[in-house]
Structures are given as C-alpha cells and as structure tokens.
Design brief:
This protein is an alpha/beta fold. It has a domain at 13-167 and 390-407: 3-Layer(aba) Sandwich (Rossmann fold). 30% of the residues lie in helices and 17% in strands. The chain contains 15 helices and 15 strands. The protein has helices spanning 13-25, 33-39, 56-66, 84-89, 99-105, 121-130, 145-158, 172-182, 222-226, 252-256, 258-269, 371-374, 390-398, 408-427, 447-450; strands spanning 46-51, 70-76, 94-96, 111-114, 134-138, 162-165, 189-195, 276-283, 298-305, 314-319, 341-346, 350-353, 367-369, 431-434, 439-440. The strands form two sheets. It has a nine-stranded mixed sheet with strand order 13-12-11-7-10-9-8-14-15. Strands 3-2-1-4-5-6 form a six-stranded parallel sheet, with helices on both faces. Strand 4, helix 6 and strand 5 form a beta-alpha-beta unit. 51% of the residues are buried. The model is unreliable at 1-42 (pLDDT under 50).
C-alpha cells in the first residue's frame, strides 16, 4: 500500500534549516489569527476524527467528548479488536481501518486526533495538516528528531492549531509551578533530576526480537500498523501495547514518560535543546544483542542544557526503570507515587514535582523545599491562562477561542531534547549535539537514529 496523494511535499535544504533554527528557539507559536477567526463562529462545534481509537485513543476520545465542544464523526483503528469499545460508544461515527482512506473520504472534518504508536505519529499528523486539519497528537510528538522538526515546520507553515497530548500541561499545579520558576522563587537553577519507574512492569525492554511468525489476526491490518517502520513478521509481542520498548516503534521510557515528567521544569526554565548527552549507567550492556532491538531495562543519562540569556546552564540527570536521584535531595520527603517526578534545585530552594506533573489536586501538588522555609509563602500572580482540560484547550483554540500552550513548536523541542537520550544510547557513546545542523558532531553512526529510513511507499 502507498499513501494517498496530497501530502507529499518537498522542502529545500535552506528552507528546512531556516525553519529548524526558528523552531528550536520559538516555544509559543500558535495558530494564525485568520485560521482562528474562520473557526470562531458562535455556536460552531468541532468535527473530529480519531486515528487510533482503541487504548489511549479511547481515553482521549472520551475526554474530548466531555468538553461539549466536539462531534466525534469518524473513528479509525488498524486493530478492530482494540477499537470495539469506541465503535459501540460512538455508533454514529464512521469506521475506518486505514487512516489514509479516512483523510481522503472525510472532507468535512475540522480536526484529527492521533493516538497511534509513536512511529506513526509524524506521517499521520503531517498528512492531516496537509489536508487542512487541526491536529492533536499524543506524546511523544514523534519517533525521531527529524520527524518532530518536520511536524513543527508543517504546523508553522499551515497556521493550523496543534497540541501534543501532555494532559498534565493543563493542570493548575503545573501552571503554578511554571509561574514559581519564572518568578525566581527558588533562585538560579543549575541542577535538575527527572525520573520514572517505567518500563518495569509496563512493557518489556532489554529483550531480543521474537523469532516466531504466527498468522496475522484477521482484525488487524499489520501493513498499516507498521507504516513507515521496517517490515517484520507480526507477533503479539508488539501489539497492542508492548511495542513501546522496541526501537523501531517506540521511544522507551524517556519518550513515553520523560515528556510528562520533564514538562513542568522544561517549560518553566525554558531550557531549549541540550548541547550534549552522556550515558552515566545502563543495563543491559550496550554490547548485548538486545540493545539493537529495545531500550535498556534502566538507564541514567546526563543532559547538558546551555545558558539562556542571564539564566545559567543546567545539568539534568534522567533516571528510568525505577532508579532514583540521591536520597538526600528529597530532604526527608516521601514519594506519593512511584510513576515519576522531578527535583528542580535552585540557589534558594527546590521545587519537587511528586508525580508526572505539577499537580492536579492539592494531594499531588508540587512542594517547595525546605518545607519550613516556604511555609505560608505567597504564590506569584497568575501569568498563564487556566483551562478546564488539555483537550478543552485544544478544541477551544480550534474554534477560535484562545490558544494552545503545548503546540508543536513547543512540543517538538521538548521531544527532541529527550530523544537525544535515545540517540546516545543507540550510538553507545556521549554525543555533542549540533542543533542547527541536526547532527551528532563527529558521530555519523548516530545519523540513522536522528532521521530514520522510512519503508518504501511511506513518506511525507
């Protein structure tokens, strides 16, 4: 199968590099005023198609429907078993198994939500934007750095409303934490620690490719599921959820949860792109054959972010697979969950996000440490808009009311920063990152991990 006509477009090297440089430095671009005005007729409802209607996509669909701003008019999933619940819940929505046919058929939809495995995010989102549709794409934004940049470039050129699915970005606690960081309440930040418990107990990593080749279930379109990824036999080891640790499809723990767990600090500190990433430790050994197929069982990485104006450079330590920062950094505080968090260490104090976001309720709200020092402290005056939900923010922006705060211009740089960790792991060495050239300096073996080769017949 080949993608349908209408979304393959070339771009000159000069235009690409100019766009990439602008995107790397711009974190707040949103849809054009003309686009917002066109969508902003009072009483309008957003007509949305869902690509990847099962699994996480089912949750996204329910959250979108709950906004009261949208009509779910089409559902698409390559696995009819996964989408069965969504098909029952939205019986009036048209059903598809191939997103290309959906985009060619459903001319009247306004927007597309993409909730597929990581390796299909870019090709579907870019196709949707070339069809003139606003896009909400699940995290991480893309499977590779090049794809993330292309998504941001197309979003900027079309002026469409975009949002990456990091729902914690919309929580009250997250936005207050960002305001705290920008008000310099904890002073200059030079040290940052971010962690997650994944993949332990969630999906396999540190494993080799399965050798069995059972028949493809009749309800699954394996060719479309693979999309741009290299061809390989079907195996239940990948579908529906355990693909996340395999390099050809997923982005491991740093892509799956790093996008959430770093977001508060990254947004508040306006970190930009790292200049280097080094491997402090990991398991299994990078010489193990499993390392060619999946991310390691656990890793500890160091990312160096450069100074930004008067703000100092920041050293970030990333821990996954259940590894944690040194105990003394928690200052006696306990974790309320083990799914992840961050410690933003400043010269006047520490901001501690105790789960994968800054806080949805008072129970999981971030802490300022030492507690005694910040007891009763006044939070800064709000500078960021508030919203009922991440999905509401996107739907409202598509209808011309407000803007999104996690558009592809922001999301692409956050995603690039974290995917550089995977580039270092796959190259097996420290990398020095040339942002403008989009390459690891003196490390040509990293090139395929920055811009992968798409399977024949799949491009954008």
């Amino acid at each position: 199968m080949t993608p349908s006509r209408g979304f393959g477009r070339g771009v000159s090297r000069r235009a690409f590099l100019a766009g990439a440089a602008a995107l790397a430095g711009g974190l707040t671009r949103t849809a054009s005023a003309a686009t917002r005005a066109r969508r902003g007729v009072p009483g309008d409802r957003l007509r949305v198609a869902i690509v990847g209607a099962g699994g996480r996509g089912g949750d996204d669909t329910a959250d979108l429907a709950a906004t009261g701003l949208v009509d779910i008019v089409a559902l698409c999933d390559v696995d009819q078993r996964q989408a069965a619940d969504a098909f029952k819940k939205y019986p009036d929505a048209k059903r598809y198994s191939d997103w290309r046919r959906l985009l060619d058929t459903e001319k009247d939809i306004d927007a597309v939500m993409v909730a597929t495995p990581d390796h299909n995010h870019a090709i579907i989102s870019i196709a949707a934007m070339h069809h003139g549709k606003h896009v909400y794409c699940e995290k991480p934004l893309a499977h590779s750095i090049w794809e993330a940049r292309e998504m941001a470039r197309v979003a900027a050129s079309t002026g469409l409303v975009t949002q990456m699915g990091t729902q914690g970005h919309a929580y009250e606690g997250t936005r207050v934490a960002v305001e705290v960081l920008r008000a310099d309440m904890i002073g200059d930040v030079k040290e940052l620690h971010v962690w997650t418990d994944r993949p332990a107990g969630w999906w396999p990593q540190g494993v080799t490719r399965p050798v069995e080749a059972p028949p493809v279930p009749p309800e699954l379109d394996w060719d479309v599921w693979l999309g741009p990824a290299p061809m390989r036999p079907y195996n239940e080891a990948y579908v529906p959820f355990k693909w996340r640790g395999f390099w050809d499809f997923g982005t491991g723990a740093i892509g799956d949860m790093g996008i959430h767990n770093l977001d508060t600090a990254y947004w508040g500190l306006e970190l930009g792109t790292p200049t280097s990433v080094s491997i402090k430790d990991c398991s299994p050994s990078l010489t193990d054959p499993a390392a060619k197929e999946t991310a390691p069982l656990w890793s500890i990485l160091e990312l160096q972010f450069p100074a930004r104006g008067t703000k100092p450079a920041v050293t970030m330590l990333w821990y996954d697979g259940g590894k944690l920062p040194p105990n003394e950094l928690f200052q006696g505080e306990k974790l309320i969950t083990h799914d992840g968090g961050s410690l933003v260490i400043g010269t006047k104090g520490t901001l501690f996000t105790r789960t994968w976001h800054g806080g949805e309720t008072d129970v999981d709200r971030f802490l300022l440490l030492p507690r005694k020092q910040f007891e009763g402290v006044q939070m800064p005056a709000p500078t960021l808009p508030r919203t009922p939900s991440h999905h509401h923010e996107w739907a409202s922006a598509c209808l011309g009311k407000g803007t999104t705060l996690s558009p592809f211009s922001y999301a692409s740089v956050l995603t690039e920063s974290l995917l550089l960790g995977n580039v270092a792991l796959r190259a097996g060495k420290t990398i020095q990152w040339d942002r403008d050239g989009m390459r690891a300096i003196g490390c040509p073996e990293a090139d395929p991990f920055v811009r992968p080769q798409f399977r024949a017949g799949w491009s954008f």
